[in-house]
Amino acid sequence: MTAAEPTAGGLKGALRYAVFDLLAAIDLWVLAGVLAAALIAAFIPTNYLATLTWTHGIYGMLLVLAISIPLYVCTTGSVPIAASLIAVGIPTGTALVFLMAGPATNIATLVAVYRVLGTRVLAIYLGTVILMSILLGLGFDALLQGVHVAPTSKHSEYGGRSPSYLAIGSALLLSGLLTYLLGLRLKAMLQTWRNLEPEPDLMLKVEGMSCAHCVASVRKSLEDVAAVSAATPELASGLVRVCGDHLDVTDLIRAVEKAGFRASEYGTAEIRLTRKLG
């Protein structure tokens, strides 16, 4: 083995992790954020919300909190939405509140905190998110007072100049990767539909998965087990289809628990019942 081989292997591993672990965990949220930002830019004129007094100060922040707290907004997907809100006239401090409160809270998280830790901890958690996001938003507005933040739009983004080759190349690369990942998802869905009848080697019921990153963590922890050839978690149901030779349920459950989740075997009778109900 030469000295260059570990570097090449390390670079290949880093690229695979960047695409199949990191980007694959957020690609759908990135697309959702870009789509939401495009709809905002298409239907709300530039700086329109700047003319409405109730969108400024504490009132605008409270409105953003009321919208963002119950909804799950991925951290990455919220960035283009916040940029579009600023473009249509939302103050930067209010956009910061959206960026902080949106990813930090959602109905599922609030219910989980309430059930596990109780009302007092839920009130402290929610109150801390609300108070700190408003304080930081107000502080951000005060810091930028008198500073003009130019809105980003299709006419002003490059100041009248053509976008650089770096910007075009980056956009094409990201679009290609997102398209590739969507193709892999569709291929996996088609294979699942074609293989509905055969029984899976083993099914697990995993508790605690709440986002795409959790799904990726569960899949990676199971596929690191030598006997596992493939693991396919479903976020909505919490079920994980595990394929491989000589699978040991104890080893699989232990691997899932090391990733921070709870798991149990999902029996054959339960699988058949789930298919009938589905």
What is the topological layout?
Elements: H1 4-43, H2 57-68, H3 75-87, H4 92-104, H5 107-117, H6 119-143, H7 165-194, E1 202-207, H8 212-223, E2 228-233, E3 239-244, H9 249-258, E4 262-265, H10 268-277
Antiparallel strand pairs: 1-3, 1-4, 2-3
Walk me through what this model shows.
With 278 residues, the chain is an alpha+beta fold. The protein has 2 domains: 4-161, no CATH class; 201-277, Alpha-Beta Plaits, CATH 3.30.70. 63% of the residues lie in helices and 8% in strands. The protein is built from 10 helices and 4 strands; from the N terminus they run αααααααβαββαβα. It has a 4-stranded antiparallel sheet, covered by helices on one side. Helix 1 crosses helix 3 (75-87) and helix 3 runs antiparallel to helix 4. The longest helix has 40 residues, at 4-43. It is globular. The model is unreliable at 1-8 and 268-278 (pLDDT under 50).
